[in-house]
Amino acid sequence: MPHTRPATLAEGPRVGIRPYTYADAAEFTALARESGALHRPWLFPPTTDETYAAYARVLIEDPTKAGFLVYDRADGALAGFININNIVEGGFRCGALGYGAFAHAAGRGFMGEALGLVVGHAFGELRLHRLEINVQPRNTASIALARRAGFRLEGFSPRFLFIDGGWRDHQRWALTTEMTEMTAAGGH
């Protein structure tokens, strides 16, 4: 069954990104429940209508966050999500990325394409200068995605974020507008 979707922010050959809506609750939570084995222990997206409503409200209303749903252009089905958290303006102009694919879309290259669209939106319309990704060292899929997207490893932070009942070590990856300009110009 084809999906009706709200306004698209950007589209690539196979995926598009759009803002969260409250109407996405049933599809998002069903996919999050189906994807529990893929997400654990790294990620805990909302799995009920109530937790989705609170989650979406923050991404829709808080100016320090921007949420993007990733959809498959072939059928409009949700494939994943990418959020920019802790957006700081002024002299810093930075945000921290969090993301996850849904199980049916994992390993198909959708998130790499979508991350490129979000980076373009962040460095364009949102006028950010820097994006960061904090990844637990054993999350090899997330590290591979950050690396493929051109993020550079900048450091290691022991006991950095409280996830799944404990303080977890993280690698810190970053991308700046200058790095994307160099890549576009054929530099390293």
Write a brief structural summary.
Helices cover 31% and strands 33% of the residues. It is an alpha+beta fold.
Characterize the structure shown:
The chain contains 6 helices and 8 strands. The chain is of the alpha+beta class and 188 residues long. It has one domain (10-184): Gcn5-related N-acetyltransferase (GNAT) (Aminopeptidase). It has an 8-stranded mixed β-sheet with strand order 1-2-3-4-5-6-8-7, with helices on both faces. Strand 4 (78-88) and strand 5 (94-101) form a beta hairpin. The mean pLDDT is 92.
Index terms:
188 residues, alpha+beta, 8-stranded mixed sheet, 6 helices, 8 strands, 33% strand, globular
